Amino acid sequence: MKLTVKVWRQGTPADDGRFETRTVNDLEPSLSVLEMLDKMNDDIVKEGGDPVTFESDCREGICGACGILVNRRPHGPTPLTPACHQRLSSFNDGETVTIEPFRSGAYPVVKDLMVERSALVDVMDAGGHVQVAAGTAPDADTDRITYDTAELALDFAACIGCGACVAACPNGSANLYLGAKLAHLSMLPIPASERGMRADVMLAEADERFGPCSLHGECALVCPANIPLVAISYVNKERMRCALRGKND
């Protein structure tokens, strides 16, 4: 299998950047997009060139580090799938594939396909944690929750923080990410004791770093963790609750 790859090259954040076109041969359809980049970099290194910089870690769809745009779509053509699991079988032999970094004002390019996504981390650092003395494990277990509540909280907690939702949104909104974090922590009895404070600081940080929700729903279509679109409603729900009841409630 052969693919023509138009890949974004940008040496430093101050550079304008450009697309570089390369032909990558001897590819198997079962390979992932990242493995195709590995093969392309092997070819570049053999030619004495500078390999394309991109991020990856687990390559198991867990860490969220592998985010790129493939033919202008976050992660790639297969819905709800991270880039590390996007297979070349989605493309035709000889097809031209465009690879570029996530595009968002909140994600400045560091080099080539690598972007700075610390804005997401800043939102979590602001309040996406629990600072409650829960006691020993038996003490914590005395707060009972239903099976359905636990499962729903876990569904929202599945967010891997890849940031594809922001790249997909024309307004650069992080509301799917933010809503998932606020939702799963508000449903559990111990984290919920800091619910007002968490909403106050996380919403303030997100409002400063990201745009407003576009109401288009593109974010949920590209989320590899399949976070439901209803997560966005928790942003306004927690905002209103904090305004009415205060950040200490």
Automatic annotation (TrEMBL):
Alphabetic keyword roster: Iron, Iron-sulfur, Metal-binding
4Fe-4S ferredoxin-type domain mapped to chain residues: 150-179
GO molecular function, one term: 2 iron, 2 sulfur cluster binding
A Pfam family reported for this protein in Swiss-Prot or TrEMBL: Fer2_3
GO BP terms: aerobic respiration; respiratory electron transport chain
Protein family (similarity comment): Belongs to the succinate dehydrogenase/fumarate reductase iron-sulfur protein family.
Protein name (database record): Succinate dehydrogenase/fumarate reductase iron-sulfur subunit
Lineage, top ranks: Bacteria, Bacillati, Actinomycetota, Actinomycetes, Actinomycetales
